[in-house]
Amino acid sequence: MNANVKLIGAGADRFQGLVGVLAVAIVVTGFPACRKPVPVQQPMAFSHKRHMEADMKCISCHPGAEEQRLAQFPLVSDCMDCHGKVRGSHPDEPKVRLYAERKQEIPWLRVDRLPGHVSLSHATHVTLAKMKCDDCHQGILGSTQPLALPDIHLKMEDCMQCHRERKASNQCAVCHK
Amino acid sequence: MSRGDDKILKQLSRREALAWFAGSAAGAALSRPALAAAASGRSDPSHRWGMAIDLDRCVRCHGCVVACASENNIAPLGRSAAANARPIHWMTMLVPDFRREASELGPAPAPVPCMHCDRPECVKVCPVGATYQTDDGIVAQIWDRCIGCRYCMVACPYGRRSFNWTQPIFPGDNPSSVNPDVAVRPAGVVEKCTLCQHRIQATLEKSRLDEQPLQDEQLQRLPACATACPTHAITFGDLADPTSLVARLAQSPRAVRLLAHLGTGPKVIYLRRTR
Amino acid sequence: MADSGRRHFLGGAGLLAGLAVGCRPRRDPYSLEKPPVPVARGVRQGSESHVLSTCGLCPAACGIRVRVVDGRAVKIEGNVASPVNRGGLCARGQAGLQMLYHPDRIAGPLRRVGPRGKGGAGAWRSIAWSEALAELSGQLGNLRAAGHPESLLLLDGEATGTTHALWARFMDVFGSPNNVGHGATGFGAVAQVMGTMTGTTAMPGYDFERARCVLLVGSGPLESSPQWIHLARSLAGEFRPRLLLASPRLPQSGALVDGWFPVAPGRSAAFLLGLAHVLLREQLGDESMLEVAQGFAVGPAWPLGFREQVMANYAPAKVQGLTGIAATQMEGLARELVATRPSVVVLDEWANDSATVTAGVVLNALLSSLNAPGGMVLDSGPGLADLAPADFDGLSRAGRSAQRLDGGSAGRTDFASSRLLALPEALLAGKPYPTEVLLLSYANPAFSKPGANRWAQAIAKLPFVVSFSPILDESVLLADLVLPDHSFFERWDLVLPGRGTRALSLRQPVVLPLGQSMQTGEVILRLAAAMGGVMAKAFPWASYREAVTARLINLPGGAEAVLADLEDKGVWVAAHDVSAETVDTVPSPLLRVPAPQAPSPDGDSTPFPFILLPCRGPGYAEGGMRSMAWLAELPLVDGDPWQERVEMSPEDARALGLADGERVLVASAVAEVELYVQLHAGMRRGVLGIALGGGSAPAVGATAGSYRLFADAADVVSGQWLAYATRARVRKVA
Fold first, then answer.
1. Whole-model pTM?
2. Which of A63, B69, C79, C395 sits at a 20 to 30 Å CA gap from A87?
3. Architecture of the C205-377 domain
4. What's the ipTM?
């Protein structure tokens, strides 16, 4: 038996292997590419840009933004206020009336979600801090398709920075559940 | 608050914290005070939240226990796990062992939440700053920083901290009734009563939105336990407001605090039985 | 292999392992994926609302306010407008969410295809409601066609409400006298005696807010009885009465009590009659209401008068041995009740002993506490109209005049007069005639009645069994057809809290039905329609809601005004003031006072030295506690909360050499069960407290389940369960 033969995993090899695993695990765990969310299929087309051009206000469809925690989604009856008759020429536009006829709400899929340990109240930010919707929802006003992926890419540091500038509390409990 | 502290406030996931601090007691000792100091941030120090529990009114119905479990998404253990672990109760009913000396509260059972001490032992020993004290007196927790060492459980003289030995299991894997205002804690995290901090935030926000000053009446039944209690035995409020009910009850001749001789400064005050 | 090759191999393996670890999809550990809910029309995504409704976990009918987020109920709190609870809510009420979303909820009608006694895959076939109703109406139609409608048996666990009224109507028109309620094991003694003595079987209320001295007979009002919330509500004020408890056991909530009389089990009647003796002997009480009641004094029709019997047999010195309370204590208590007025004697609704209830009502009359401030309030209801009378046919009348299966006297059965405990033997023997169809509504006797195993055997023998339970239970496992009710969170109704509140409490859906269940009240209407003929004619309402609303016609303002109040506040209360109902208008609400027998001596205590005491703690919910884990895991004990326990006084334990937490075998004449010892200083010697409602998940013939320990012997006259007649012995597990 060759006295130089070492068992696999013994001594220096094992140590280097272990370090290799740990190092890669640590690095890759933080690697943003590996946390990509999956795009969703919304029930029909919708263009925020087109609706803003029609002088609509965000609050007409998202009524919770001023006084509640969640901004909420529109009811099909809200859409029918205008789309009770044909508006525009998009091929999906008649779907609004179809849903209303069938007495169904349009099943929009919610894409912007905060992590479960973060708490946010729209009322505080919109009414007390007098922020504009696109301060956080950057780019939504110009989008021509409903969200398939989250449009908010804020990190905790971004929120804290704004809080610092606007003299709001950075105490953990204010934003974390 | 210096810019240097901000770096430490970067988002730390539990895994990263473990990787950074594992095996490094010195590292923990060096960074813990900085983390804790940074965590408290700037808040509203004009309030000092406290609670009074009147043992003459308490019917020991356990309504507060279940109200808290429901509000804060405390998953039950279930039949099979209960053989090996204790169910978690943020608000528990302390049943004195009649064979030993009674506590300051006397021989009858009493509801006991976290004491939210002025000088909390748990905060002193946490190596990662996962538990800290806010300026308004709440001993709060950052779930994601907890590494599950359970030093805080050892340190708490009231035994009011619980460890998640398992992932939360809601009966039939159906978490439909989970309260969206409170995070669900994963396995490996220590948890305890938060004095319904999410409700405090909501009430403060509402008073700012309504542009009305905060009234004591809005606070008296604020936490879930106080809301549920049919005899109004539990009162919450601002101890810093001398006109508040809780502050007045704290001055009652019946007022007593658990293990007061330890100097922890608990902010849950009991009104002793008179019968 | 060379060293460098090995190193590269390990380095490469490390890289791959790290990538594998890091590139898993990241799950958010702080929130949970919730099952989808049907998107209701007009419910905005992300919206939140609070819905007022009424809890259904006990007959108290507390008002609740449920927070609903995105179509899911996430928190239950009390409704501050309800006169029952004024915003408070007990442990049970709040655990209701676990019942609503329980995985054992039955999703829709089921037809058994596998053998009885088993659940799981292969046991059931899901069917449509049309098929289910067609089958049941066919079965029932066959009974009528054969001329034997009396072979239909209904077990209805409710005592009030419109569904209960519809069932009674159904059985009447169908032609069966076998409409059996659960009064024999709780609430029935109070209902029966109140009916005899005052003409109304409604549960009385108690004006705790104005009482100065309260004597609780039995610990139900401190723990699990619907009276509990009324007592608790009164303690929210600034004033509280002196609270005294007469019971073999001082529960945890007995911490509230100022004095405890550890009366021997089954001897509370003797205790109360001892107090009455003192008041009559020394003329300390007000006898005006009693003198006009029949039977209080000896008369031509009443050879045994109440007064004479009490004076002859119930002197405190005579009954102190039986009750275990010294004569001096009884004398002192009687005088205290007179001196500290308004004082009131509170009868535990779980109490199963007619003599105790009679004695309590008489004492309240003597203390001027009947329909008076601070006293016992006879409930006259809010004024709901009865359902319009139905037409019968010859078969209805013939069937109803048949002998009752439960041995009760002929005529309309009702909750109070039902003799539930006689049924297992009658069903097993097929006497006086065989039963063909059994309907179980709010009933699970194969678990939650004494003699549960006999019930399981009896039910298994019947040809066709139908359960309306919304959740899996033992009786469902024995059923052939399941027509699941909505949970109380999913249906509309008006509920009567009674107990002197004179209120109506709104129950309305807080969420869309989770499955394809249907409200039982609705099922009754459709069943009658499917049967046609006289049945269909007797149920003319298009919907259950219409049937309920029709009963509001006599209320002030009419149905519209009442419904508007209910929508707004969740409750409607008829104007009422106890002190306004004075004796000027009615000289006495007492019609009759049944005379007590002489007290029977204690039975032989060997070979079973202990008396078993049924205990119902703060989490008690009949069989439901097993489904609501928050209740099963209440911090009542230190050990495993799911294990069933026996409470024992420390002295008895010491005498037997038992330690706290030790496993023992408790054996009665009926069954033997292994339980944990729980030492309890508030337990009378010679008594074992058996907590009811716990045990294993629903399974027929399960070995655990403490109801099985109790014998189902019933009082011959009243049909009430002899709750304190089961004796037992304890020995260590070998």
1. 0.90
2. A63
3. 3-Layer(aba) Sandwich (3.40)
4. 0.92
